[in-house]
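Reopening this one. Same input as before:
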Amino acid sequence: MAWLQYRGRLALALIMLMISAFRACAAELPNPFPPGEVSVSTLANGLRLVVKEDHALPVVALAVAVRSGSAAEMQAPGRAHLLEHLVFQGTKRFPAPLQAQQALEQAGGISDAVTSRDAIRFQAAIASAQAELLTRVLYDVVMAPLLTDDRFEQERPVVLAEIQREDDDPIVTAIAGAYRVSYRSHPYRYSPSGSIQDLLRMTAADVRAFHQRWFSSKNISLVFVGDITAARAKEIVAGNFGLVKPVPLPERPPAEITSFATPARHHTPTALPSTCQAMAFSAPASADFTRMVATDALLTLLVDGPDALLSAWYAGRGLSPARFGGEFVSARAPGRLILWADTPAGQAVPVRDATLALLRRIYVGDVDDEALELARRRLATSFVLENETYSQQAATLAFYESLGGAHLASRYIPALEALTFAQVCDAAPTDLLGWVTVGTRPEGGM
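Same output, byte for byte:
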């Protein structure tokens, strides 16, 4: 989805119930981010401060978005991800491992962190009376981690095990391969987690260099959601994040316009009796916002719910994938729409060809407009449901900060409601950039 790093799935019965209620009353779903309720300002040091007030509960969530994730790494992929782990293993004010996290937990708070291609996000929520503690702890985590050699060596096996778990999943492996072969040089081709080989070559000095290079006030957004005013948020960050120096940032890698005469092809043989495949297609950058939302709607139309188009399309052609799905993670630079399937080896090529045929039919408008409308409403419902809590809203606003600005979150529901049939059809890609298979080699094909 455009608002999260990965596509979330809610209880189908709840989604369908809300869609039915939505249709019955013919009312618009509420926008979780009304434009007038999200304030954005820039501090003197260049740091962006985003505040969404909501005093219904005495709770406040804070998300700190550093607008450089794994895609900031032209060499040594994986530094951003390892840094995300290391910051909780000791800071200047909280030198013991997990001490900063425990300081929040002892005050009733919860914390989390995630690395994507475009950002690293550190996040916590706590009672609003403890907003100053929340900000102080996250400041220390983000700006004053120790990043010592010994902590690096202790944490590296944890991250290696995490990567190994991903590598053990053939679908995850196929999707990662689809990114890798469909970009020639842009660092989006690398997994945000990094690879085992890259991590074994990495040093603590590499991680410290990444932190020094990218953790500048001009590259950080603070997002407060909940029981706090913009004035109060500005007051409590003045003595910590407000003092961060605006270090000049390196140039980001240029966007890559990939075009292949034939799709890039890769196969990873394993003992798996079936074939897992991932197909990579071009997808828009966040600057093309309407097309980005249209791609979200397209993916929902293809793979979500019992009426997903690919389900009926495969069945009508005698194809029976054990599972199938898709991924579209909105990105600052041109991204990828990934469609994947786990099939009997003999069906891998027919499933690929059937998928391409359906996309081409959608592109020329040969799709039922009622199915498209249902997909659009399901997507709107999911957006509302997945932004119910202050923490979820802070994560969404921080996510959009990494793509170009929190105002994009306010535009999502209006853009979805205004989306036309033609715009969704036009978002359907017809050229396959990369095809990756894992398991039994498929018969025939490229």
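So the earlier flakiness isn't reproducible anymore. For the record, The chain has two domains: 36-243, 264-439.
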